[in-house]
Each structure stands twice: as structure tokens, then as C-alpha cells.
């Protein structure tokens, strides 16, 4: 799909110009909220609109995911993860040494006090995330792209005591849920195999039938209302007295304010400005099947560590975590490995032979504490950060955009942004 935009004028007469580097869902939402506040906004991205994780994610507005990924329960599983090339969590052995500093920080963040504070911070974003989308969807008449049927976390062999412990943890964080037995589950999702014994229904969760289309349509609305898009790579950000100069390959543009929303590529962009960000490219995969109407909502598996989401183009199987760097070649076998799990859970897929199914890989921007970087750049008056949302970029896109708009407007932010300050990395070895 092609996105057209007017020619960038870069006029000096407009004193409220904002450049947003990165046109994924986070950058798009920042652009829309700033536009609503009266700013002249330009989106810049060399890859185009929504061509990273915003294109291939599971389409799940996962407001229930308030727990950081740094969990002590992962420790016993690490040896198996290293040995299983197609497992749900994979660290490429040749990349392990390079990723070791990230994992040291990751382990450090498993401390109980840090887990508690990071959970509180994630919850503060997630509980306002879907509400923050509503004005953007209403403005663009896109309410049909958001479904609020909740999501399911299924259990096949998990012990009841473990399920009860998990329920208690979610309830302690105020998550609206219900434990369903087999009969209740069949009423919601009759296509699920009988091996699924029970499930948690997360009631305040949503999904989209096409995350890429959602990004495109929001961008069209942004352009229709005077926004601009430039498809060029940004080489450098250069501060000056009145703002930030964005250096492109063929020209330089000056803005009063600039927002960095470049996901897993943010580390390289902010490093010349003196900011250290321990981002790792946590690679995720999806396999798109043509089957329709097998599910009514996202269904995740507690044991199999993947998710199935019904979409307009079929059924999307998504998941897996792979640490192999930004530029490593896609391992298609990791996408293919999702299909056998789906066949176990959906009997109608049992006879399905994949042929020409879409396989995708994208780099999630993951930080070792599972918190994004959101806020004002501490040493640069006109620069703002909005990146590092790991698995929750789609979920937290709109609330991030709202916060950035509030900060640039010098208004109190809707969420306390102190946990998301980049100084947490620049002032401490961990």
C-alpha cells in the first residue's frame, strides 16, 4: 500500500514544527496527538509506514501484560533454550557473547523490588492504553478496526495450583479476568481442541483484524489533515539553538522539536548525542494462514508460548523470542514451527498443508527492564524519546503519543514518566 504526502516545505514561518523519526505505530500515534494539539508534524522513515513490528505483530492490545519479562522462573529454562533452535526462547550461540551485557542487566532486573516497581510502571501505561486510542480512532472513523472481545490464555497440562497462583498475581494488579472451565470455554471458542482444559478470559483486552492497515489508515488521516511523510533514512540528529536538525541523505531539515521513535534502531541514532541505551533486537515471527473464522479473539497458550489471532486475511500465528541481532537472516523454520502447535489446538487445521503462507520476522526493541524510554531528552531541550516498547508497541502506542504531546505542550503527563527516563541507563551500570 502506498502512502502519499505533500512536499515538505520546511518553512521558517511556522514556529510549532515537530519531526518524528520512525513511522511505526508509536511514531504515528505521536504524530496524531501532536497534530491534534496544533503542531505542524512531519513523519520520517526510510522503510516506509509501519514496515517493522507494527506490520507483523499479533494484533493484540495486551493490557494484561503488566509483568516484566525479567522473571526468575526463566532461569531453570535457560539451558534448554540455548539448545533448542526452534524453541519459544532462543539465543543464537554465535550471538551470545555480544548479547551478554544485556543479559547481565536482565538478570539484575529480576530482583523483587525491581520487578514490583517495573510492574507498577507497566500497569500505569497499560490501564490507559486502549482509552488513549479512542480519540484517534474516532477522528479517523476507524472504530471497526478495534475489537473488544477480550483474549484467552489457555491451559492444557498446567497444574491447578499454578493457575490459581497466576490468577492471584493478575488480580493483585487489578486485571479484569475470569477463569473459564471447559464448558464455558466451548461457548466462547468452540473450535478449540478438548485437550484445552481451562482458560483465563482477559475482559479488557482488544485486538485488531489488521495492524498494518490500522497504521496505514491512521497515517492517511494524519496526511489528510496537513501532516507530511518523508521516506528517507535519517543519518544524524544535530542540535542547534532553536531546535534539532535532521540530516537526511539528500537534504537537512530543521524542526523546533524532534521525537525519536525508531524502535530497535534507536540505540544507533541517539548514541552520537551521548545517550547509552541497552536495546536488543528481540526477534519475533509470525505465520499467516488463510483459514478464516476459526477463532473469535486472540488465544494464547500458556504451555506452548505462542498466540493465534483472527484477522481479516486469515489466522495469524505469532510468537517466539530470538536473540540474534538486528541484521541476521530470518530463520523461516522458526515461523514454520508455529503451525504444529496451532494444529494441536485447532482440529480444523489438522489436515492443512501450508502452501505459500506468509512468513514474517520483526525486531522488537527490548530493554532489560521491560520498560520503554518515554520522555524529554535530559541534555537536549528540543529532543524527546518514544522507543523500546518490547512486546507492547501496539498496546502502548497511543498512550505514548498522548504523553509525548503533553510533554511538548508543557502539560502534566497523563502518566508519571519518571520510570521511563533514559537516565536510568546513563547514570547506572545496570
Structural commentary:
Strands 4, 5, 6, 7, 14, 15, 16, 17 and 18 form a 9-stranded mixed β-sheet that branches. Strands 9-2-1-13-20-19 form a 6-stranded mixed β-sheet. It has a 3-stranded antiparallel β-sheet with strand order 10-11-12, with no helix packed on it. Helix 1 packs parallel to helix 9 (211-224), helix 1 (25-36) packs parallel to helix 13 (393-408) and helix 6 (129-140) crosses helix 13. The radius of gyration is 21 Å and the shape is globular. The chain has a domain at 71-94 and 146-205 and 279-365: D-Amino Acid Oxidase, Chain A, domain 2, CATH 3.30.9.10. By secondary structure, it is an alpha/beta fold. The chain starts with 16 loop residues before the first strand and ends with a helix. 31% of the residues lie in helices and 24% in strands.
